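Dear colleague,

Following up on Tuesday's group meeting, I ran the structure prediction for the two-component complex that the binding team flagged. I've pasted the input sequences exactly as they went in, so you can double-check that nothing got truncated or mislabelled along the way. The structure tokens for the whole assembly follow below. Feel free to forward this to whoever is handling the docking comparison.

Inputs:
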Amino acid sequence: MNTWLRLLSSLDGAVFSSPEELARLELSRALPEDSFALVPDPALGDGWRLSRSEGGWILRGGGTGLLYGAYSVILRRLADGELPEEEASSPRYSLRMINCWDNMDGTVERGYSGRSLFFEGGRCAWEPARMRELGRLLASVGLNVLCINNVNVHEPAQQLLEDSLPELARLADVFRPFGVRLMVSVDFSRPLHAGLPTADPLDPEVRAWWRGTAEKVYAAVPDLAGFLVKADSENRPGPYAYGRTHAEGANMLAEALAPFGGVLVWRAFVYNCHQDWRDTGTDRPKAAFEHYMPLDGQFAENVILQVKHGPFDFQVREPLSPLLLAMRQTAMAMELQLAQEYTGHQIDLYTMIPMWKELFEELPPNRITALAAVSNLGRDVCITGHPLAAVNLYTFGRLAWDPAVDAAGAVRDWVRLTWALPEAQEDVLTSLLLSSRRTYEKYTAPLGIGWMVNPHDHYGPNPSGYEYDQWGTYHKADRNAVGIDRTHAGTGYLDQYPEALRRKYGDPASCADLYLLFYHRLPYTWRMRDGRTLIQRIYDDHFEGYEETKALVESLKKLDFPAPDRELILSRAEMQLTDAREWCDIINTFFHRLSGIPDERGRTIYP
Amino acid sequence: MNTWLRLLSSLDGAVFSSPEELARLELSRALPEDSFALVPDPALGDGWRLSRSEGGWILRGGGTGLLYGAYSVILRRLADGELPEEEASSPRYSLRMINCWDNMDGTVERGYSGRSLFFEGGRCAWEPARMRELGRLLASVGLNVLCINNVNVHEPAQQLLEDSLPELARLADVFRPFGVRLMVSVDFSRPLHAGLPTADPLDPEVRAWWRGTAEKVYAAVPDLAGFLVKADSENRPGPYAYGRTHAEGANMLAEALAPFGGVLVWRAFVYNCHQDWRDTGTDRPKAAFEHYMPLDGQFAENVILQVKHGPFDFQVREPLSPLLLAMRQTAMAMELQLAQEYTGHQIDLYTMIPMWKELFEELPPNRITALAAVSNLGRDVCITGHPLAAVNLYTFGRLAWDPAVDAAGAVRDWVRLTWALPEAQEDVLTSLLLSSRRTYEKYTAPLGIGWMVNPHDHYGPNPSGYEYDQWGTYHKADRNAVGIDRTHAGTGYLDQYPEALRRKYGDPASCADLYLLFYHRLPYTWRMRDGRTLIQRIYDDHFEGYEETKALVESLKKLDFPAPDRELILSRAEMQLTDAREWCDIINTFFHRLSGIPDERGRTIYP
């Protein structure tokens, strides 16, 4: 679990009960030669200000601000050796959240780092020392909310608000000095389980039941961040069963939380997951906009609508969700996913910050009020499964603090903090990490089309795996053409965007290549702007993706990772190479069988 | 569990300890008005002879012969009211076997009738009364061997020969009066588990270990039929690990069983289940022949090589396995599958005897010495899941007794014994059952091509589900053509057959339509003998298959099945209709996307 904090000494046996105390402790232990005067300034909140003083530095901040400042100073000092004369920093978003999809049976939905850190066998099963390490990791990059259980609330997870509430309180106590507040995913239909005849959000008894539940929970965990809800999505219960809107559902829960300062985070991941593949009138990416835009302005003040960054579900390339651009009167969080569900299961190398930066280029600065990411953490020796996947947790923290963060700089900071590699190797590794997403994209589903993974487990290629299924994710490749026309002339998805984006993507002749098959249905003979045909571009990308992976593996072998990271990294690299070859060959064969068009460069495409 | 024995009174409380006693009991209870003199004649063995005498009949037979004669007489009398003046019957095969794929955790591999009848929670968990009903069902159609555990021997199934041996003995006691002997699937590598350093079949210690095991087992179950082994198949252990042949492996076990009269049944289902889809030099249906033909003549006398009826794995249409024709110096069993693994999971209606009869048309009468079928039984209210699936168990018994049995007659007997339907409805149902396989075949994978099912669970369509996988089951459909050329010019599979069959199937111009895509790769524009193109034939079959299913459902609704059978049958019929529509539309869309050729008759093919 050391990763970027490897240079800090263990917290075992350390005593501290507040972020401020922890800040002092960390500074004195990590930088004993330096002198820091810590000056609490509650007005600064999470923010901090560093200034040079005679013989040392003065660090001002709110309680958590002092802690974030301390970690920033420590990590800077350890990585660069330098500290600025003056610096002030405060986070862009007040809620910087990790969503764990951990089940109480110990499994982790879409988890690739082993079993749950929190649960086992239907019970809370966390180790205080490990939780402190986790709290420190989160705090060290400014993350301040941890939702510990799966949004798909399976029994007995609701016990966290009931019989297991004392355990939740103890866990909150562990995280509190790290400035990390807990959040809990709740089951919208829980009142039924409690014996009520309905879970209708407008029913007075239901409202009273949730108010009572909130009271009990906040009596045990006074600083709980709030509740997270997945409703009417993928067969979860929700307000639709009672003919109520999602605003009515969310507001009812928000009302219960309001007296305690809690927020209600409501996920906007709602679509028809029982679509008939024959139905071409429904286009899944339109769903969130259609469900939520009519409700803009109707949500209570302490509701946050959590919207996935793209309109589908964490594919390697999706445009920014139109909902994030359109909703002006609703507080929103953007949801990212550190767990590599569709992006290689923490086997294939996949550094996300270049993708995130692209999203923020499209997203006006104050459109969202919070940032959330699905966890990539687990109980494995390497807490992120793949040692190099820790870069995604680290850079997510940096991004949530400041979306203007420099991607290359943040990755490089992580590399330097994590290993003592020679500087030339740091350059190589930084560059490999930064290019890893493009490499993965090249050998998998082409040009924004998505969903060519194996169904259910989502690792490895299966070009028609979702083609006749109920999930609304079709490419309809035939002998002549591939893709879905999502322009005004097609499904109309593009109409959900502002005019500028409609223009940007609406014409296949000017649409960026990498989004081409997201928006358009095109013949294989379509001429790209660089003169290549579409089919040739698909072949080229796939051969290049595989070649780049071969080179990646060779490069990784030359880096001086220490044990056991080296073995973990290299064994996963070999698995990635196998995966890349399967992807490359299967996608090329799939399109060659359909199109009959050979590779212009005569490379092997299997029959 | 009544099915075709519904007219017999319950065995509850009945006392009998041998087949002969049971025969007397059954006759006296079922036909109290008739007088039967039972004359034991050990020389007749399983056979029996009925003759008219003054005031009654004389039934002669070995112990089991009397029992089989009794059931034959009873069922004939109950169904037809008539008995012949003279009749003699003896079974074609001395071993008529049911193979249960039941695991000791209570699951049944490829089971569609609920949980195991024998096991639960890692233990034997059978109910004597239910076992007696099962024994009676088997005996009533002449089945005499029951292998109770899965050929994939998962822990703790080997305990049947060890700690659970007393339970096995008690179970054998229950089945003995029914003339049913038990068989046990064993794990070839078991000596390793017992602490031996090897499971090498030529190792003296290993041989001694198996001899000792057989001694212990036969001390407890003196009439055990023998062992069943799946070795070196789908990741099961086997002699190949020690550089030994399968003859050496089988003979070693046979030697241990020989002193006790046991047989060693060795499955010939061996192929490369880790094939690279890119490898076109390997053709899975060739595998069994390649593995076993070189061993012909090397097997011990009490070894039976159990060969699946087709060279693949229980597809809706496969030619007869060439091994069954070629091996002349080896005792062989043909393996059928009552469990509808690839043929509708006991949801879709699928009566097998028309298919079996086709197999026996190709198979010389004395080429095999035994017949086996994978069980379709389980703990559901309806023991075969679908009430109409019981016809497959019944007719399998009839077939194993006499492969010359008339298919229509046997099905009609089953219908009449199972329900008291008006005669016109018996005709309708018999006809629906007899045509059900062709209907299923029409709407699923076309013309012998196989393997367009969903991977793993094997229900429902997935035209490319196995296309890039490791199982050696590819159709390689592209925009021009579909199928694998298995002639001499292709993979050479056809060369494994005798000359007459090579001629029969080798030329696509004369090859029977229904085997066309098993043997040949052909363009969609290929002209069939009836003038239709191949693609049109595919479309026609699929539309017809769906239309026939609609008609089937309507016909079933009109039949006067009693409760609860009626509800079970009609609810499954609705599921079959949904399945047939998915198959029809998906297969047509799949081939239309590839070929671009419209349906000549303008029916809807979805884009």
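The mean pLDDT of chain A is 97.

Cheers,
M.
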